[in-house]
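COURSE: Structural Biology Practicum
ASSIGNMENT: Worksheet 4, Part C
STUDENT ID: 0417
INSTRUCTIONS: Below are two proteins. For each, the amino acid sequence is given first, followed by its C-alpha cell string. Answer the questions at the end about the second protein only.

PROTEIN I
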Amino acid sequence: MISIHQPDDLISISLYNIFNYRKNDEKFIELVTDWNKKIVIHIEPFYPVTVIFEGSEINFQIGEAENADMKLRLKMDTMLDLAYGREDAFSAIGEGKLEMEGLGDDSSMIGRFYGIFMESMIAVAADPQLHYYEINENSR
C-alpha cells in the first residue's frame, strides 16, 4: 500500500487526484514503491511543484527542489493533449512542447516516469466520469 499525502495547493491537488486514481493499481504501486526520486513538474502558466517519492509515500512541495532528479516543463494544453492522446510524449519533446532534464540514458528511470505520470494521466482522461478536463477541438 502506498500513502499519498493530501496537499493544499491547486497544482499539487491536481497531481494528487491523478495519482490517487491509481493508488490501488498493482503496477502503479510497484513503480512508486522505493523510487526515491524528486521530480519537478512545472505546468505553465502555473508554478512548479516537486513530487517527492520516498519509500511507499508520495509528497508534494510547492516550488522547485534544488536537488531534483528530474525536471519537467510543459504548458497546460500540452498536458491535456498528452492525456487525451492527441499528442505523444516523444513528439512533444521533439517539438519543444515538453522539456525534460535529468533523465539521462537511464531507460529504467524513463520507463518508471512514463508508467507513473503518463499512464496515470491517460487513465484519468479515459474515465468517462472525469471528462470535465477535455477540451473541445472547436474551442481552440
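PROTEIN II
(use this one for the questions)
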Amino acid sequence: MMAQDPKEWLKDYSDFLSLDQEQVPADLNQRVTTQIRSLLNPSAWWVFAKLLAIHLVVGFFSLGICHQFDMNPFGTTRSLSDWFMQYGMSACMIGCGVIFVSFSVLAAGYFLTVEEVRVLRRTEFIQSIALGVVSISLFAAFGAELAFTFVALWLLGVLVGGFLAAEAAWRLKTGV
C-alpha cells in the first residue's frame, strides 16, 4: 500500500532509490516493471471499453439536444438537427455525427488518464469508427430507419468529430 503522507512517500522513494539492484527480489522487480509498463501503455481495447461506457451515457443524453435518425428519448421539441437541416440533409447527418461522438470523446478525455488519452489519440480513427458502428447498430436495434447514404455521411461526421475531439482532449489533458 502506498503511503499517503507526502513526506513518508518521499522517504519511501528515497529508500527505493538507494537500494542496490541485487537487494530487490527478482519477482518483485518483475511485478513492479509489468505494472508500470501496463499503466504507461494501456491496451487500446481497455481504452475502447472505457470510451464505450462513457459514450453510452453521454451519447444517450446528447440525443436530447441533437436527435439522431429520429431518435429522441426525452421528447424534446428543439434539436441541433433542426439548425443543421437549414443547410441540407447532408450537413445535418455530418453535423449530428460530429456532435454525437465528439461529446463522448471530450467527456472521455476528462475521465481517462493522460496515457489512455494518448492511446485514444493514437487510435482515434478505429476508435471513432467502432463507436459509430456500435451506435448505428443500437439505433437500428431501437427501430431507427437507416439509409446507406445517410449512415455514410453520419459516419464521416463521426470521424471528423472523433479526430477533433481526441485532439482537443489531448491538448486539454496535457496543457499543450
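ANSWER KEY EXCERPT:
Q1: Residues 96 and 129 are 15 Å apart (CA to CA).
Q2: The chain has a mean pLDDT of 88.
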